[in-house]
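Entry 14: structure prediction run for Flagellar hook-length control protein FliK. Input pasted below.
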Amino acid sequence: MSNIMKVTTPVSGYENASRTNPITTSDPNINNITNINKVTRPDSKSTNADYQQNEFVQNHRSNYEGFLRALKETPSMTELMGDLLFVKLGNMVNSGIDENFAEEISRFLEMIKLSKEELGVHLKNQADGATKFSGAFFDFLRGALAQSNSSDLNFKILDLLKKYNDFTSSKHILNSIVIDLSNLSKSLPKSYSVQLLEITKLLDQNAKPGDVSKNLEILKKEMIPFLSKYISYTNDFGRVRDIISSLMLNIARYENANKNGFIDAFEGIMNYNVIKDKLGNIDSQTFADVLVQMHGEDGKGNEYNQKLIDILERGIKGEAGYENIDMFKGILSSMLLNESVYVPLMHMTLPLNVDGTMMFSELWIDPDDEEGKTGEDERKAKLLIKFDIKDVGFFDLIILHSKGKIDMQLFCPEKVLALDKGIRAGLTEIMERNGLAIKSISVEKSKAPISISEVFPKIYERKNTVNVKI
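Run finished. Output C-alpha cells:
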C-alpha cells in the first residue's frame, strides 16, 4: 500500500529527489499547453469550424455571415421556377386541387402570355416597378450626390430618400403593424387578448399615405402602455417578446412615414443652390402628392408579381399538396434573399410564355459597376441574366455596358452550341437595332450555373457593414 502519510521510514535513495513538473513546455511531443496568463480555450482552437474556413469574414456570428451562408445553401430560384412553370403548375390545375386555387393558377398562366412585340414593353414596366427610386427626379438626385462636395447635402438627400421610402410605404407599414397585433393576440392570455383587439379596432386602416398622426396617437398612448403593463406583470420572455420587437420596429418606421416630415426634408435640400437652380420654386405639398400618385401607379403594373406571391403563399400552406411545400418555400426564400440589403443590385423575375414558349428569366443589374474602372467619369453597368427555356435548357448571359458599347458572354446547353454563328448574329442585330455597339461576344458551353457572387464580387465587400445581430 502507498505510504501516503509517511508515518514510517521512507525508502532510502528518494529523500533528496527533486520534484519537477512532468510536463514541460519545451517538450516537442506536447501541444497546446494552457497559458494561464491568457484568457483562451485550453486547446487554443476556434469553436467554429466555419470560421476557420472563412477567416476573411470580420465576425463569423454576424448577420452578414448568416446571409452568405443562406446565399450558398438556398436553391436557385431559376431552376425551381422552371420546374414549377413547365410541369407542376399545369399538373396542379388538373390534379383536383381546390377550385379557387386552380382558377388563380390558370389566371396567372394567362397573365404571362405575351407576344414578341409585347415582351419589350413588359420588361420595361417590370424594370420601372423594380425600384421605388426611379424617374427623372431620382436620377437628378443621383447626379447631385455624385457631383456634390458637401457632406451636409449628401446627408440631407439620403435622409429625404429614407423618409420618402417610409412615407410612400405607410399603408404597407400599417398593415404590418396590424399583422403583428393579430399574431400577438394569439399568444396572449384571453383576458389580455380581448383588450388588445379592442385597441386594434381603433386604428384607421384606410388612412391616406403619410397621414399617420391619428394612428400614432393610439399606438403610443394606448397600445404601447398596455403591452408594457402586460410585460411588467407577467415577465413573458416567450414568443410575445419577439413579436413586440417586430411591432416596435414597425411603429418607429410608421412614425417616420409622416408626410410633413418628408416635406420638411424636401424643403431642407431646396436651400442649396445646386438643387434650387434645377428645380426652381416647386411647391413641396404638390410635389409630395405627385410622388405618391406615381408610386401608386407603379404598383398597379406589378399585378402579376402579387399574383405569383399569392400562389407561393397558398403553396406553402399545402394547398398544392404537401409534397410541394419545400419547393414553394425554396422559391420564396430565394426571392427574399435577393431583396436583402446585402445584395446592392436591382433584381427582377420574369415568368413568361412568349408566343407559346414557356420560360423563366431572372435578372440582376448593377448600374454602377466599379470593377476595372479606369476613369472617374466612366460609368459601367453589369447584368447577369439567367433564363430557362422549356425543352431547350438553362442559359447564363453576362453583359457589361459602357458608353454605348457592349461586351457579352453567353453560357448555353451543349446542344445549342451548334448554332453559335446564328446566336452571335442574332445578339449583334438586337444590340445594333437599339443603338448599341458590340465590342465582344463569346458563346461557351455551360458547365454549371453561374453564381451571382462570381459576377458581382461587391456582394462580398464588408468594409461598410456593421454587425447588428443581438
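Notes: The CA atoms of residues 138 and 161 lie 9 Å apart. Will compare against the previous run tomorrow.
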